[in-house]
Amino acid sequence: MHSVDVLVVTAIKEEYDAARALGGLSSWADHDEDEPAPYSTARYGTLAVALARPTRMGGRNTSPITTILAHRLRPACLAMCGVCAGKPGATAPGDVVVATSAYEWDEGKQTARQFRADHQAFELEDRWVRAVQEFEPSGLRSHGVATEEEAELWYLERLLKKQNPRNHPSQDRYFPRATWETRLERLRASGFVQWQDGQFVLTEPGRTHIEQVLYIDVDGPDRMPFVVRPGAMASGSSVRANSRIWAELEVRKRDTLAVDMEAATIATVARDQQIRHWLVAKGVMDHADPGKDDRFKAFAARASAEVLFELLQRLLKPPPPAMPVPGPVRHEFTLQLRYRWPDVAGLLGVPAHETRRFRAGDESHDLWRWLEQQRRLADLPEALDEIGLSDLAERLRPHL
Q: Taking the CB of residue 331, how many other CB atoms lie within 10 A of it?
């Protein structure tokens, strides 16, 4: 059995391959290849990483392998990268949404007249939310500043899709300050756009040109000026190709920026397995609209993996080495918790199936050993304070 800092799960093989091919990783080692829950391990900077995937996407298929490996590997964090549908008007293809909240959007009661939502949201801790808000992706391999040619193609594509380029969420990334007028004038001089009824519209040469460019572009982009958006992620049991979903989600949870199938499962397993941290980052490949295609899928998978691993590297920094707990202090813990160990176990959320394994008369010793194996000894002082053993908590703190 391997001990890892983070277990990363992807929903499909393409997402798995994108994470596995990420730069900065050591060589992968494969484990349990003939077992129901195979996984691979590598190092990313200071982090020991495990990577796995189910054979089919969706929360129902993701939960079993995630639960098995979470129990086996006991990571400090459970994470996921991959692709999602992004909210139109708030996200653009290629952007990466990091879930600050994850919930099942279709939890509730369906009556003859309406759906009554009753979802349970899992919230990301504030320190991690702040890190996402301040994350700048410009140093990542998939990020790149748009060239003038890319900006002009972006503008023509917006007109082709009958989108308003002026209020598009990525407008300022393709037309930085003081470039709007000059770049539009280049397009007009090229004969691709013309002024009509108070706005620029495509000419026939412009339409032919952008349609041909999009037809040829079967591989999708290698680099894009994407941004990282923190927001709620709504998980469901089916792939959506219906843009009405966004109006429904606006009523249920206004800050929803993405729809996927597995984020809520990751957060749920983290809670059930007593894993302190969870993190889900997914790249926007479409807007869950009828005209969706897979042009941005590979890029979205790759960019989400880069964002996820870089965030994990920053957030899961190894703690400074602790001083060994002196034998007398540990002995005192064992004595003082001989009859109070159930209180501490309850406060720390030690699962009942684990406490049932504790040896009669040695429960406090086995509790210490279990917390040591789970790398959770640092949680002890606060729990001891809660039950009135502050003196013991103070003796432990310098060593944890």
A: 11
Number of Cβ within a 10 Å radius of residue 261: 23
What is the Cα gyration radius of the chain? Answer: 25
- 138 assigned to some structural domain: no
Is 18 domain-assigned?
yes
Cβ 101 vs Cβ 124: under 8 Å? yes
Query: What does each C-alpha distance from 136 to 176, 268, 282 come to in angstroms?
Result: 17, 28, 16
Q: Does the residue 30 lie in any domain?
A: yes
Residue 112 and residue 235 in one domain: yes
Q: What is the CATH number of the domain that holds 231?
A: 3.40.50.1580
Query: What does the CA dihedral 309, 314, 318, 319 come to, rounded to 10 degrees?
Result: -150
231 and 113 part of one domain = yes
pLDDT (tens place) for every residue of the chain, 400 residues total:
467 999 999 999 999 999 999 988 889 999 998 999 999 999 998 899 999 999 999 999 999 999 999 999 999 999 999 999 999 999 999 999 999 999 987 665 666 566 666 568 889 999 999 999 999 999 999 999 999 999 999 999 999 999 999 999 999 999 999 999 999 999 999 999 999 999 999 999 999 999 999 999 999 999 999 999 999 999 987 666 566 788 788 777 888 999 999 999 999 999 999 898 999 999 999 998 877 778 999 999 999 999 999 999 999 976 555 567 888 888 999 999 999 999 999 998 888 878 888 989 999 999 998 888 777 888 899 999 999 999 999 999 988 8
193: containing domain: 148-216
Residues 281 and 98 sit within 8 Å (Cβ to Cβ): yes
